[in-house]
Sequence to fold (176 residues):
Amino acid sequence: MSQNFSKIEVGPAIVEYGEGPTMVKFETTIGGVVFNTETTYREQKTDQTGETIVGKRVTGRNVSVTVPFGEYDLPTIPKIMAGAEVVTGAGGSKVVVKTGVGLNLIDTAKQAVIKPLAKLTDPDFWITIPLAYSETDLSYSFNNENERITNVTLRSTPDEDGVIAILGDETITATP
Fold:
């Protein structure tokens, strides 16, 4: 098989989380957007074959996207962090971060789309997570050596068809 260098992809991406007016667009990242799948398995063995594996079954699959968001933007935090809220009053607004204990993150799930900058208008190169919930942690360094990063991890939960990720144009449908 000959090499096809045109299939080597490099470069940064943006991530769109949600749709419409509540969508958060992560356009400034520091450290790169990372898409991962993680599959868990169960090995099957029998007494008669000892430690030899006679079957291996998929027990689950999860998808995650890590987004090291580089913009310090307070109004965005409540859109991506369960238990955070904007409080507006005399003199401006602030973000209050609460414990979030007991919140079901699955209830906050919405679509996430990764778009490579070199292919922003070509959905064949996009990755779509139909339902993703956000796990957000703040890591703000106050020094001359580091930027303030909002670490966002978007994790999949299956949609009604059991889909957790779509690689390529999500609008393509099967032909009969």
Q: What stands out?
A: The chain has a mean pLDDT of 93. DSSP finds one helix and ten strands in the chain. Helices lie at 77-80. The chain has one domain: 13-73+104-167.
